[in-house]
């Protein structure tokens, strides 16, 4: 199996020279272990999933850290979050950068531990599954939506249907029990499937709760758990003082589009092409590729969407210099004049934006051109387009 160099690796190496600790979070099987072991081959490696190592770190943290006085890679730190307090003591005592690399799969637990003990001492890196710009393989769009981006599926040429089914089963039966005391796993799995049926839509927790047969409180808690474990992503609405009533609920997406397709019961590329949610899956793909572009360069999330009470909407906004660049997402392969209507409305609402770009249209075709001031691009050219719009 050949290691595919991750874009974020350069940032990891750069930030390791500037901070005593770097912390890498992301979904299970997104490649965190491979990344840090490849980037830091000379650091001792400790996997806190290992029961003996975990117990040692829990019962004798000082003795545990004395074994690695010059630092180490500590994998899955969320298993011993209290260890971060002892790491703080070590890094403050040593007074130097480039000591510890921490990884974790559950972002809320990791962030809580890090913020309490290592604030100002650690750089944060978020690693999602492969980005399109990291893959040399060029496959069809429907195959891409089916396969998703988890590294093992690509590295080992796994059947995505089987691999993603196993991922869901492992998550529900193993990880979920560590995160929360959810007793009825079948109801949780039902909610997960219902979320897949709502990708790209405004999140209505009451509707989800009713359809899943659970309380509103439980639905809210379970969605938070899904977000904490990097399964679902909530795209924030863009607020602006424009004298109009704006939608204030987030839109729901999956961190991996292949996982969403699997939960929808899709098993073949031809199923994707005929599925009523194909456009939603394509939108999920574009939103996640935009997010990966930011995270792979150690930049914070700056993605939003726009919708007002009259239904006027822009699928995605990317802030550039504090001003929103509108991005419309259409899965069709043929350019349609209707694809550009949202830009006209949006630019009438925000006439004072200083950027010269009227926006970006990402569609299911291959053309890359400017049309009525809008940059038109296919999905394969999206990273380059994002780079240009952020200059």
Summarize the structure.
This protein is an alpha/beta fold.
Write the layout of secondary structure elements.
Blueprint: H1 9-16, E1 21-25, H2 32-39, E2 45-47, H3 51-59, H4 61-66, E3 72-75, H5 83-94, E4 100-104, H6 107-117, E5 122-126, H7 141-147, H8 151-155, H9 160-179, H10 185-196, H11 205-212, H12 216-228, E6 232-237, E7 251-254, H13 257-263, H14 269-274, H15 278-295, E8 303-307, E9 313-320, E10 323-330, H16 341-349, E11 360-363, E12 369-371, E13 374-378, H17 382-389
Parallel strand pairs: 1-4, 1-5, 2-3, 3-4, 6-8, 10-11, 11-13
Antiparallel strand pairs: 6-7, 8-9, 9-10, 12-13
Helix pairs in contact: 5-6, 7-13, 9-13, 10-11, 11-12
Q: What does this 3D model show about the protein?
A:
The strands form two sheets. The chain has an eight-stranded mixed sheet with strand order 7-6-8-9-10-11-13-12, with helices on both faces. The longest helix has 20 residues, at 160-179. 43% of the residues are buried. The chain has helices spanning 9-16, 32-39, 51-59, 61-66, 83-94, 107-117, 141-147, 151-155, 160-179, 185-196, 205-212, 216-228, 257-263, 269-274, 278-295, 341-349, 382-389, and strands spanning 21-25, 45-47, 72-75, 100-104, 122-126, 232-237, 251-254, 303-307, 313-320, 323-330, 360-363, 369-371, 374-378. Helices cover 43% and strands 17% of the residues. The protein is of the alpha/beta class. The chain is built from 17 helices and 13 strands. Helix 5 (83-94) crosses helix 6, helix 9 (160-179) crosses helix 13 and helix 11 (205-212) crosses helix 12. The chain folds into three domains: 9-126, P-loop containing nucleotide triphosphate hydrolases (Rossmann fold, 3-Layer(aba) Sandwich); 133-286, Arc Repressor Mutant, subunit A (Orthogonal Bundle), CATH 1.10.10.10; 303-389, no CATH class. Strand 3 (72-75), helix 5 and strand 4 form a beta-alpha-beta unit. The model has no long low-confidence stretch (mean pLDDT 90).
């Amino acid at each position: 199996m050949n290691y595919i160099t991750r874009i974020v690796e350069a940032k990891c190496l750069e930030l390791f020279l500037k901070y005593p600790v770097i912390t890498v979070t992301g979904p299970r099987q997104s490649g965190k272990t491979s990344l840090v072991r490849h980037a830091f081959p000379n650091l001792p490696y400790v996997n806190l999933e290992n029961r003996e190592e975990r117990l040692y770190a829990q019962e004798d943290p000082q003795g545990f850290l004395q074994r690695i006085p010059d630092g180490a890679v500590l994998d899955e730190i969320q298993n011993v979050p209290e260890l971060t307090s002892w790491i703080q003591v070590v890094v403050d005592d040593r007074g130097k950068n480039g000591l510890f690399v921490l990884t974790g799969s559950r972002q809320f637990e990791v962030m809580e531990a890090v913020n309490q003990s290592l604030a100002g001492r650690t750089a944060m890196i978020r690693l999602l599954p492969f980005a399109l710009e990291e893959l040399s393989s060029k496959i069809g769009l429907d195959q891409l939506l089916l396969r998703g981006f988890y590294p093992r599926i690509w590295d080992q040429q796994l059947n995505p249907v089987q691999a993603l089914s196993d991922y869901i089963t492992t998550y529900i039966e193993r990880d979920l029990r560590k995160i929360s005391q959810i007793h009825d796993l079948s109801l949780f799995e039902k909610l997960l499937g219902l979320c897949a049926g709502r990708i790209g839509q405004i999140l209505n927790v009451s509707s989800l709760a009713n359809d899943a047969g659970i309380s509103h409180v439980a639905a809210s808690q379970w969605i938070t758990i899904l977000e904490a474990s990097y399964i679902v992503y909530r795209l924030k609405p863009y607020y602006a003082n424009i004298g109009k009533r704006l939608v204030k609920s987030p839109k729901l997406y999956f961190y991996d589009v292949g996982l969403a397709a699997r939960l929808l019961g899709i098993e073949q590329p031809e199923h994707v092409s005929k599925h009523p949610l194909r456009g939603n899956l394509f939108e999920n793909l574009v939103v996640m590729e935009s997010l990966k572009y930011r995270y792979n360069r150690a930049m914070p999330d700056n993605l939003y969407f726009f919708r007002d009470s009259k239904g006027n909407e822009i699928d995605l906004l990317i802030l550039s210099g504090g001003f929103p660049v509108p991005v419309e997402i259409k899965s069709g392969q043929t350019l349609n004049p209707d694809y550009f209507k949202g830009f006209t409305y949006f630019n009438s609402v925000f006439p004072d934006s200083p950027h010269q770009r009227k926006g970006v249209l990402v569609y299911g075709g291959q053309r890359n051109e400017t049309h009525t001031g809008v940059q038109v691009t296919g999905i394969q050219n999206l990273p380059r387009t994002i780079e240009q719009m952020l200059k």
